[in-house]
User: Which sequence fits this backbone?
């Protein structure tokens, strides 16, 4: 059975602008070849689209804007779309990150992969079955 994972926008952006052999790119590659099952929800999809279209991201990315859109489309095609019917509101420091935990819980994810793990670890409601990992940590396990 494939690990079900939520890939935070920070990881996708790091894959776009980071090192060629970096952990975020390797993780994205595992999703694209079907070795991990990424989950997607409407809030996360909107965030991916917004952030990947920003000039400061596109200026640092070796891909053209069309190639970025194609990569995002390919990634999303591998994602399992998860409807969220119940908002848990774990009350993270950054309210905008709550949707990641909600998506992970709704989709029975084993992990949320982020470059900012401490932002997700101090919730008022905890879900111990969902691990908060960096790309490097998940790659070591895989």
Assistant:
């Amino acid at each position: 059975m494939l690990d079900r994972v939520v890939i935070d926008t920070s990881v996708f952006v790091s894959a776009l602008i980071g090192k060629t052999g970096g952990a975020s790119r390797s993780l994205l590659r595992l999703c694209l070849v079907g070795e991990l099952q990424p989950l997607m929800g409407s809030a996360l999809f909107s965030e991916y689209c917004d952030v990947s279209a920003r000039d400061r991201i596109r200026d640092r990315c070796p891909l053209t804007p069309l190639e970025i859109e194609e990569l995002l489309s390919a990634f999303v095609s591998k994602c399992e779309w998860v409807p969220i019917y119940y908002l848990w509101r774990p009350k993270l420091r950054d309210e905008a990150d709550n949707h990641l935990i909600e998506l992970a819980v709704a989709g029975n994810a084993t992990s949320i992969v982020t470059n900012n793990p401490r932002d997700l670890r101090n919730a008022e409601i905890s879900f111990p079955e969902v691990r908060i990992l960096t790309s490097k940590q998940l790659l070591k396990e895989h």
